[in-house]
Amino acid sequence: MKFFKKSEKSVSLNSCVVWLALTAVHSYNAVPRRGPGSTTSEGHLRNEFWAPVLSNCFKLDGLKFLSVWELEHLIPGNAGKGSSKCDFAAATLDAGGIPVPFFIVEFEVGGFATHKDTVVCSSEAVFELGQLIGKLNVTKAELGELQIFMGLVNDTKITIDVITAEYDLESDMIFYVRHPAVASFDLSNADTNILETLNLLVFIQTVVIPKGKDIQTLLNCRSGPSSISNLLPKLPPMASKSSQSKTMFTPLNKRAK
C-alpha cells in the first residue's frame, strides 16, 4: 500500500500493518464495559489500542526486529530497587542474543503536560545508548549515527523524543542530549485519527526503522571493544521512578533553582 504525503513522495506501507492499526483506532472504546463509573486503564489502553498499532510495524516485511512488551533493562539492582521495565520496545539483538532497543515507549492515562515517565524513559534510553556505544568500535564522529527514540503516550496521543550522544572537544567527554517532541501524533480526533495513524506509521517506517537498521548493521559489522566508552558520563546505579504530577505545571516552590 502506498501512502502519499503533501510532498507527493510515496511511502510503501505493509497493508496488513495498516489494516490492523486502522481497525484498532477506529473501533477503540476508551471505557471498558465494567459497569457504571468505570474508567479506562493503562492496560486496557495498551492492549486494545496501541498494541495493534505498534507491535506489527517491526515484525513484518522481513524485518529482523523484536517487539517486546515490558522489556527488562539491565540497570544494576533488582525489581523494585534498581531494575527497570519499559512498557514497549522495538529492539534488535547483539552477538550474545541480548536485546538492543532503539525505540522505547511508556504509557499513561489521563496525564498532564509532563508525562509521568519522562524521566524514567529518558534514563532507560540513556542507559541503553551507553550500553550500545560500549559494544561498538565507533569513532567520536560517528556517534551521531546512534539514536534512541522515546515514545511518551498519554491516552491516544504519542510524543516522540530522541536521545543522542555528542562529543565535547573542550571537556573531552561525551554528553547525552534529549531532543524533545521531534514528532507528535494525536489519534483521538474522529475527524483526523485515520490520517494521524497513517502519519505515525509513515514516521516509524521512514525515520525509526532506518535508524534501527543502522544499529543492526553496526552490531553485525563493527562489534568490538569501544575506544571511547571511557568518555561516557557515569550514570546512577539505580533506575529512576515514575513521578505522577497532580497539577498541570510544577508549582513555583518546587521548581529547580
From TrEMBL:
Amino acid composition bias (Polar residues), ranges on this chain: 240-250
Region Disordered, residue ranges: 236-257
Name of this protein: Uncharacterized protein
